[in-house]
Amino acid sequence: MAGITAAGGFKASGVSAGVKYIGKKDVAVVYSERDASVAGVFTTNTVKAYPVLLNMERVKAGKARAVVVNSGNANACNGPRGMDDARAMTAETARLLGVAEERVLVCSTGVIGQPMPMDRVIPGIGEAVKALSERGGRDAAEAIMTTDTELKEYAVSFELDGRTVTVGGMAKGSGMIHPNMATLLCFVTTDAAVDPEFLKECVAYAADRSFNMVTVDGDSSTNDTLLALANGVAGNSEIKAGGEGCGIFRDVLTEVCVFLARAMARDGEGATKLIEVRVVNAPTGQDARLAARSVASSTLFKAAVFGRDANWGRIICAAGYSGAQFNPDAVDIFLGDIQVARGGQGLSFDEEAAAAVLSGDTVNVLIDLKEGQYEAVAWGCDLTYEYVRINGDYRT
Amino acid sequence: MAGITAAGGFKASGVSAGVKYIGKKDVAVVYSERDASVAGVFTTNTVKAYPVLLNMERVKAGKARAVVVNSGNANACNGPRGMDDARAMTAETARLLGVAEERVLVCSTGVIGQPMPMDRVIPGIGEAVKALSERGGRDAAEAIMTTDTELKEYAVSFELDGRTVTVGGMAKGSGMIHPNMATLLCFVTTDAAVDPEFLKECVAYAADRSFNMVTVDGDSSTNDTLLALANGVAGNSEIKAGGEGCGIFRDVLTEVCVFLARAMARDGEGATKLIEVRVVNAPTGQDARLAARSVASSTLFKAAVFGRDANWGRIICAAGYSGAQFNPDAVDIFLGDIQVARGGQGLSFDEEAAAAVLSGDTVNVLIDLKEGQYEAVAWGCDLTYEYVRINGDYRT
Questions:
Q1: How near does any CA of chain A get to the CA of B228, in Å?
Q2: pLDDT tens profile A197-247
Q3: Chain A contacts of B306, Cβ < 8 Å?
Q4: pLDDT: which is higher, B269 or A66
Q5: Would you state the torsion angle of the CA atoms of residues A190, A195, A200, A206, taken in this order, to the nearest 10 degrees?
Q6: 20 to 30 A Cα–Cα from B68, which one of A10, B181, B188, B359?
Q7: Per-residue pLDDT at B1
Q8: What is the mean pLDDT of residues A322-350?
Q9: What is the b/e burial string over B101-127, where b = at least 16 CB atoms within 10 angstroms of the residue's CB?
Q10: How confident is the model at residue B243 (pLDDT cuts 50, 70, 90)?
Q11: ∠A143-A218-A80 over CA atoms, to 5°?
Q12: pLDDT tens-digit map of A383-392
C-alpha cells in the first residue's frame, strides 16, 4: 500500500463536504495512534494563509497527533476570522479524536480571499473522523487534490534495527509553470521513531532536493506546506543525528519527496511532458541548483518542448540569467542522448532525432558546466494551451 | 515624424537581406551626420551575444556615428566566429560610411546558436547604407522587428536654450511573458548636445523606469540593448548634470522610453491586453518596484486577466513573494475603479463590473501598501493560447 497510511499506526480518510464543489472529496484527516515527532517546511511568501501561521507555531513543540486538510478554499486573506476558522478546524478535530488541540495541525488549499464555509467544513470534519481507516490513504490523497489530474502517493520500506520501517507520503500541487500560486501540500508519515530535531533536519534536506527544485525559492504560494510525522510504532530505537540509521532514513525520506515532486511536475497544469534538467560539474552546489531551476522554469523553453523544437539557445540563455556563475564558452548541452552544443556553440544534429526526444513523455536535459564537481536536478513540465485554459478560468 | 529620424542630423534605413525570411526587412542602419555622444544599457545575462560584448567596449569612448542592426539571428553562442562576424558588420558599415570602425555599434536579435549568414548580411548592409534617408526611421523600425506585430516609434520635441530639441526612438521586443529571452532592442536619438557622462546617467534613469519595469532584472536575453545617441545638431549649449535643461531632458528621454516600453508590453507575444500595475505608499522605492514587477509578471495573474477573472488573490500572492516588505493586513487593491480588497481582505464587489474592467484593452491594477510614500509602475500583458503557439514554434 502506497501513501499516507502505509506506515504503521496511521489512519486517514477523505470525504466530500461541499467546500467548493458538490461530490468532490475535499476534507481529509490524517491521524496517528500515538504522539508523533513532527517537522514542517512552510511557504516563504510574506502573505501566509492562517493555517500556515498556526502550524508554524504548533510544530515548534515537535509533537503532533493529527492533521486536518481541506481543498477548495485557501483560508488566506480573510482577516481575523481566518485564524478563528483555522483554530476551529483543529478544535473540532481534536474534540472528536479526544486529543489536545495543540497536537492538531491544519492545511488549506484553494481560492484566496473567500471566507471558509465553516457550516460545511465542520460537519465534513465529523464525517472524516468517522471514516478514519488504516486503508484511508487513497481517500485522503483524493481529498487534497485541486487541479491535479493524478493521485500522488508513494511509500518505501526498509530494515532498521531489526524492524521494518516504512516512510509513505501524499502530495498535491500541479500549477508548476512559474509556480507562484498553485499550492504545494505534502504529508509524509513514518512509523520510525525519530528525534524531532533530526526529523527537522531531514525534512529541510529532502525539501531542498525535491520540492524546492520544482518551485523557485521565494516564489511560493500563500499555503505551501510539507509536514512529516514519525510515530515510532515500528519499534526501532530513536533515530538521531549521527546515530544508527540516520543516513538511510534521510535518504529514504528524500526519495519519497523526490518521487512526489516529480509527480507534481509531471502533472503540471496542462502538461504533456515531464522535463528533468540535470546540471553537472558546476563550481558550487548553489550554481548547479540555480541553473537547473532556471532552465526547468523558463516558459520559453517549456513552450519549445511543447512544440518539440530543439531550441537549445533557450536553455543556455536561461542558465545565463539564473545567477549561476559559469563560463558560457565551456558549456556542453544534451537533449536526451543527443549532444546539441559543445563549448557553448551549437552542433549540427539530427533535428528529427531531437524532435523524437522531445516527443517522449520525459524530456531529459543535461548541462555540463565543466567547472567543478557539483550537480543538481530540477523538474518542470511543458507549457501548453491547456495551462492557459485552466488558469484563465480557475476561480469561476 | 515619430521615431529614430525625428531628431535633426540622423538618417536611417531598413532593407530585406534574407537573414532568415525572404521579403522581411531585416537589416537596419542608423547614421548621425556628426559624432554623437552615446550611452548604453546592456543585458545582465552571463551569456552575452557578441554584438553586446563589442558595444560594451565601444561605448566607453562616449562617441558614436552609426549603428547597424539585424533581425533573424542573435549572433550568440557561435564561438570566436561570432565576434569576427560582429566586427565585420561594423567594419563594412564604417567603410561604406567613411567613418572610423570604433564609432560603429552593432545589434542583433533572433535565434541563438546559429552562425550569422554573412554572405547575405554584408550585401544587406550595402543596400541599407545606400538607402539611408532622413525619412528612413519607419523602415528601420520595421527591420528590427521579430515577433512584434506593431511598429514601435515615438518622438517628443521641446524648447531648450532657444532651440527646438527632439528626442525620438524605436524599439522591438514582444516576448513579455516571463521575458527571459525575447530580446529588447531600443534606440533613441536626439539632436540635443549632451555631455556623454550625463547621457549615461539619463539612460540608466530612464531604463529603470521603463524597460526594467517590463522585464525583471537579471532575467534578460543574451542581446538586450538600449542605446542613446545625441548629436548636438539642435545647437543648444551642451546639457550637463545640474546644468540648464538637465531635468527636462532626462524626463523627456524617460517619457520616450516609457512609451516604447508600454508599447512592448501591449504587443507582448499573443497579448490581447496591456496590464499596468501601480504600487503606491510603499516603504521604499525598491519595495514598490519589486511588488509591481512581480504582479505584472505573474503568469497566473496574466492568465486570469486573459480569462477576465477578477482573481485578486493572485495579485496579493505575487506581491507577497516578490521580496517587497509590507504588511499584508494593510493592503488595498483596485482593479480599474473597483476596489476588490481592503486591509488585505476581499470585498464583495460586482463581478460583472470587474469582468468589464478586465475586458478593456488596458487593465489597471492599483496596490496601496499604506506603509510609506514611494511608488512604481510596471507593465505586462495577458497570457494567451497565442503565446503558447508562438513560442512552441518560433525557431522552426
A1: 24
A2: 999 999 999 999 998 888 644 457 889 999 999 999 999 999 999 999 999
A3: 388, 392
A4: A66
A5: -50
A6: B181
A7: 73
A8: 94
A9: eebbbbbbbbbbbbebbbebbbebbbe
A10: very high
A11: 60
A12: 888 877 777 7
For residue B292, the SS3 value is helix
- A47 → chain B, closest CA residue: B320
Specify the residue for cell string 525559492: A217
Q: Which residue matches cell numbers 480573510?
A: A78
**Would you report the helix, strand and coil content of chain A in percent, each value rounded to 5?**
35, 30, 40
Inter-chain CB proximity B385 and A387 less than 8 Å: no
Q: pLDDT tens digit string along B315-368? A: 999 999 899 999 999 999 999 999 999 999 999 999 899 999 999 999 999 999
Q: Do A304 and B396 touch (CB under 8 A)?
A: no
The whole-number pLDDT of residue B183 equals 79
Residue pairs spanning A and B at CB distance below 8 A: 224
How many H-runs (helices) and E-runs (strands) does chain B carry?
A: 11, 14
The residue-averaged pLDDT of A150-179 equals: 85
Of A175, A306, A346, the CB nearest to B113: A346
Residue in chain A lying closest to B358 (CA): A392
pLDDT surpasses 80 at B216: no
Residue B166, C-beta contacts closer than 8 angstroms, at least 6 positions apart: B6, B7, B8, B155, B156, B157, B190, B191, B234
| Average model confidence (pLDDT) across chain A | 92
What confidence score (pLDDT) does residue B394 get? 52
- Separation between Cα atoms, residue B115 and residue A238, nearest integer Å: 62
Distance between A255 CA and the closest CA of chain B, angstroms: 28
Please report, as a single letter, which amino acid is at residue B60: K
CB-based contact A321 B44, cutoff 8 Å: yes
Q: Chain A contacts of B383, Cβ < 8 Å?
A: 388, 391-392
Helix axes B80-97, B50-58, angle to 10 degrees: 50
Indicate yes or no: CB of B329 within 8 angstroms of CB of A79. Answer: yes
Is the entire prediction scored with pTM above 0.80?
Answer: yes
Active site residues of B: 183
Catalytic positions of A, please? Answer: 183
- Alpha-carbon distance B29 to B22, whole Å? 19
A75 sits in the region (left: phi over 0; alpha: psi -120 to 50; else beta) called left
For residue A345, give the nearest of B78, B306, B345 by CB distance. Answer: B78
Instruction: Please give the Cα distance from A379 to A145 (Å, whole number).
Output: 20
Model pLDDT for residues A38-76, shown as the tens digit of each residue: 999 998 888 999 999 999 999 999 999 999 999 999 999
C-alpha cell, A228: 512529516
Task: State the smallest CA–CA distance between residue B316 and chain A in angstroms.
Answer: 7
pLDDT > 80? residue B393: no
At residue B369, what is the residue type? L
C-alpha distance from A324 to closest chain B C-alpha (Å): 8
Residues of A with Cβ-Cβ distance to B396 under 8 angstroms: 307, 309
Candidates A48, A317, A367: best to mutate against B (most CBs of B within 10 A) is A317
